[in-house]
Amino acid sequence: MYTIILILLIAYLLGSIPSALIVSRLVAGVDIRTRGDGNMGARNVSRTLGWKRGAIVALIDVGKGLLPVLLARAFGLSLIWRIGAAFCAVLGHDFPIFAHFQGGQGLAATLGGLAALAPVEMVWGMTVYGTLFLITRHSDLSAGVGVGLTVLLMGLFHEPIELVVSSILLIVSVPAKMMLDRPRRVRIAGA
């Protein structure tokens, strides 16, 4: 039981690393939470500080979701605890202890967790996401279709129901966090 608690705690702490804040401070000397839409995520970094810096943040954030699940797997934890590690990493990203609990919306961390939990389905989903984004340049639409396809493939490939349901919950947490952050983002945009 101590191993499970330790891995879930590590997952939360990894998720709490405020990569967008660190990158924005290192490269531009700014707090990304006061720029653009105020979101502490890769898309806001990309829009305000350039796509290369946004890509760095995205890769780190994907890793924050991926590594805890791989760690849980390495310690032989069951699927439910690997899913728990993904949830803790996303929770850390959304409400990071290292950034006064003002985090991002968790899309990249969610994608990282799902990549470790269902890699084949994620390759297909992210291929569709990338292709649609190149065509439409609409990130939300592309991500929605890509992650939707990922979950659909999980069902078609007969993944365990716990994985399918938890994946849906992880994905739904992204727009839920977006709505939760809306008042702060409107205030920052109006300032």
Describe the protein:
With 191 residues, the protein is mainly α. Helix 1 packs antiparallel against helix 4 (51-74), helix 3 (42-49) runs antiparallel to helix 4 (51-74) and helix 4 (51-74) packs antiparallel against helix 5. The longest helix is centred in the last third of the chain and has 30 residues, at 161-190. The protein has one domain. The protein has helices spanning 2-15, 19-28, 42-49, 51-74, 79-94, 107-117, 119-136, 139-156, 161-190. Helices cover 78% and strands 0% of the residues.
Provide a concise account of the structure shown.
By secondary structure, the chain is mostly helical. It has helices at residues 2-15, 19-28, 42-49, 51-74, 79-94, 107-117, 119-136, 139-156, 161-190. It has one domain.
What are the salient characteristics of this protein?
191 residues, mainly alpha, 9 helices, 0% strand, globular
Describe how the helices and strands are arranged.
Layout: H1 2-15, H2 19-28, H3 42-49, H4 51-74, H5 79-94, H6 107-117, H7 119-136, H8 139-156, H9 161-190
Helix pairs in contact: 1-4, 1-5, 2-4, 3-4, 4-5, 4-6, 5-6, 5-9, 6-7, 6-9, 7-8, 8-9
